[in-house]
Design brief:
By secondary structure, the protein is an alpha+beta fold. The chain is about 55% helix and about 25% strand. It has one domain. The longest helix has 22 residues. This is DUF2750 domain-containing protein.
Length: about 80
């Protein structure tokens, strides 16, 4: 499995500048092979990782599940 390291702060700043979502970027990276995307902080420490699926269908499932979990967590903060 290919591993891709991404500096999280720069990545999310770029998403804001380009006015796009990480899911749009991830969909462009799909080529039929799973990839491990590793998000790093400014000290090169792992913040989190994501296994990019090999199909756009699975990516859409992941996006929906992420949105659901994120909404639930936000609801718990209010």
């Amino acid at each position: 499995m290919q591993k891709i390291e991404i500096k999280a702060e720069q990545f999310f700043e770029l998403l804001k500048l380009k006015d796009t979502s990480m899911w749009a970027i991830f969909s462009q990276m799909i080529d039929g092979n799973e990839k491990e995307i590793i998000f790093l902080d400014h000290e090169e420490k792992i913040l989190f990782n994501y296994i990019l699926p090999s199909t756009t269908e699975k990516l859409e499932e992941d996006r929906k599940e992420f949105s659901k979990q994120f909404s639930e967590k936000l609801a718990n903060f209010n």
